[in-house]
Amino acid sequence: MKGKVIILLFLISYSITSAQWVQTNGPYGGYVNCFTIMGNNIFAGTQEGGVFISNNNGASWNKTGLMGILVSALAVSENNLFAGTQGGVFRSTDNGITWIEVNTGITNRVILSLAVSGNNVFAGATNGFIYRSTNNGNNWTTLNTGFSGNVQTLVVSGSNIYAGTDGYPGGVYISTDNGDSWTGINNNLTNTQIYSLSISGNNIVAGTYGGGVFLSTDNGANWAGINNGLNDLNVFATALSGTNIFAGTFTGIYVSTNNGANWTHLDSNYVRSFLVVGTNILAGGDGIILSTNNGNSWSKVITGLIATVVRAVAVSGQNLFAGTEESGVFRSSDNGASWTWVSKGLDHKSVRSLAASGSNIFVGIYTGLFVSTNNGESWNPTNIVGPVQSIIVSGPNVLASTNNSIWRSTNNGSSWNQLSTFYGGYSIATLGTNIFVGSSGGYVHRSTDNGTTWSSIKIGPSYLTLKVTALAIIDTILFAGLEGAGVYRSTDYGSNWTEVNNGLTQKFVQSLISIGNNLFAGTYKGNIFLSTNNGTNWTFVGDGLANGSRNYIYSLAISGNNIFAGIMGSGVWRRPLSEMITSVERTSSEIPSTFSLSQNYPNPFNPSTTISFSIPTSEFVTLKVYDVLGREVATLVNENLNAGSYSYNFDASNLTSGVYLYKLQAGMYSETKKMILSK
User: Fold this and answer.
1) 20 to 30 A Cα–Cα from 62, which one of 29, 117, 638, 666?
2) Residues 6+ apart with CB under 8 A from 146
3) Residue pLDDT, tens place only, 413-462
4) pTM of the prediction?
5) Domain 310-579 grouped into CATH 2.130.10.10
């Protein structure tokens, strides 16, 4: 009989799903810096989201094991896949499922380019550093290049290795001895800011920043500009496909079919990388576009590519809006299961802020403030220009802040008045007649008369000048999030501030949001924290989030029973509030004489039961549920409670039948009891 019980509990343990954040299905996109191909798989390195893989020629994409990091270069050597990042070189031997750092000998880990020549792997970094590995990255040797420019590109042709550099001086360099020595080959190369090199036979094409495209027909000994019809001279990527030369620029793709004598503009998408596979051409920039007919036509192929930098999230009724750094605004009406691009009318796609007021949606972009009255289907400009960093709705007022000005509308955005031509910043909050603006230098600007006059208060460590990136309010308490100093609290309308960072292990705060007495803080590396006692204590609630080295939690929004997080390089994530915020009912204000934890009732139960407890003194209380193997499956209470008697109705709908333990911890008091869920 005992053996049967043990088997039952073993099976139960594997059916429990841990509470955590889940990634929504987008928005798709993100900046794509590089490509490589290995067998039937194509890999894409993104600006903020790591490496993605496609096994169907780019039609759809999936995450690999390298996420949340800027990837500048990819290369393949036999069954080894290498990624050059801002944290050095990573290697995968299983098609990107797992990765390890391979940086022994690399002193400058800002890797910009990679190339493979025989058994050698080369990595180009900033400031003229090139490293060589002869054992698949296990060790690296620093090469004596003799130049100091950033090594933006490395290419191999036969026994020659070419390095394209920018900076002063920049230019093209060649090595004929496996990287041991390098020689500049810049004759008639009138622009030496090299971002791309492509080679076919004796022909080398160089893409430059500000100088267009140059061609050498003698292995780099001489160069000539070939820019007739090339209207954008900022060339980030080049590619050779048959007799065609492709150039990727800010304003799209250009092609030359006659060795650069003339250029034709093909597509208006921003492009910074190419991959040619037969007659297929992939172009990466703002997402990925594909041509299957050698560049004659192009289509977006970004399904599954969730590498967007989501700067802002806002809610309007059943609609959720996400503002991205690369691609404008997206809308979801199904909690993120699907997203629609809604940016028609925006003259710039770099979003900084979002807010909703009734049927009006406001978006702050790099060039100013726009408003939509039809759920984002179209947008119209206001008279506010410049990067709009923050927008809030406060009663009948809408407030917007640029880098150096504050604006207010009292008619839902139809017209705007400038409140300040000096004070501006990154965050706004209102409390009564007080307006607060979080700015750079650790300053909070305050107006006590609705914006007529202003004063400035410095918060945070006196020796640091940090951005006040977020402001939030609970009742009459004001909270400020600083980029590097955590959270500060003011109980006197901003006159004095106190640091409240106990348990806040990541202090690079980017976003704050409150609901009731609960305060959430979004920080760096995919960390989100919750305080239920006005910042006195913080608990980590970021389970399941992407936690790459660059995953800032830029924005938080609450819609119904869910909280949403906009993340750098990882799109929008969602988590039910009920997994983090508890509702414990005080049943009596009489002060009990002892601590106690009652047996749940009913027991056995299906699917809910009531757990009651008493505390004779004010304590920080946790009430948690565990399976019989000791693994936590639910946190019911996690907050400061006054002395009294309490009850909590526990809903176990998401759990399977079996025996569970519930544990009360209140100060030094601890007690555990058993309960049975029988479905």
Assistant:
1) 117
2) 128, 181, 182
3) 999 999 987 777 899 999 988 999 999 999 999 999 988 899 999 998 88
4) 0.82
5) yes
Judged against a pLDDT cut of 60, whether residue 8 lies above it is answered with no
Q: For strand 280-285 and strand 498-499, is the pairing parallel, antiparallel, or unpaired? A: unpaired
Residue closest to 200 by CA, chosen among 186, 189, 216: 216
Q: Which CATH superfamily is domain 585-677 in?
A: Macroglobulin (MG2) domain (2.60.40.1930)
The mean pLDDT of 539-562, rounded to a whole number, is 85
Reported as a single tens digit per residue, the pLDDT across 396-414 is: 889 999 988 999 999 989 9
Place of tokens 């499956």: 633
**DSSP 8-state code for residue 605:** B
CB 212 within 8 A of CB 205: no
Domain residue ranges in the chain: 26-300, 310-579, 585-677
Q: pLDDT by residue (tens digit) across 145-165?
A: 999 999 999 999 999 999 999
Tokens of 149: 């420019």
The continuous run of DSSP H or E covering 305 comes out as none
Banded model confidence at residue 464, pLDDT cuts 50, 70, 90: confident
Which 8-state DSSP code applies to residue 411?
A: S
Top-confidence range, 75-84, 550-559, 611-620, 648-657: 75-84
Domains 26-300 and 310-579 share a fold: yes
Taking Cα atoms as reference points, which of 325, 283, 342, 275 lies closest to residue 47? 325
Ramachandran category for residue 251: left, alpha or beta (phi over 0 → left; psi -120 to 50 → alpha)? alpha
Top CATH class, 26-300: mainly beta
For residue 498, give every residue at least 6 positions away whose Cβ sits within 8 Å of its Cβ, in sequence order, or none.
488, 489, 490
pLDDT higher than threshold 60 for residue 298:
yes
Residue 473, token pair as written in the block:
């309010």
Closest to 129 in 3D by CA, of 168, 92, 87, 179: 179
Under 8 Å between Cβ of 352 and 312: yes
Beta carbons within 8 Å of 382's beta carbon, 6+ residues apart: 368, 369, 370, 371, 413, 416
Structure tokens at 188: 């008639």
